[in-house]
Amino acid sequence: xxxxxxxxxxxxxxxxxxxxxxxxxxxxxxxxxxxPRKGVLRIETTRGDRLFITLLGSAFINLAWLGAGLGPQPxxxxxxxxxxxxxxxxx
Length: 91
Known about the structure:
By secondary structure, this protein is mainly α. It has helices spanning 9-31, 47-68, 74-90; strands at residues 37-38, 44-45.
């Protein structure tokens, strides 16, 4: 049925994790609404905004990692996790 696309377990897991994150953040926003806050960017952001910034930045980190040939790709995940922690803390 899904033969038209080269699905692998890592690819499927990636999309499952993204869907889980979006669902979790939606439930959190409904159950525990928050007021936007200003961080180092001096713009108001919510949890969802920070998640979007994290996902977008992580995509660029992984592309740069691949392009620069900095080593095995799983190490880029460590950089992305540090980046995510920084975004959720200070943005």
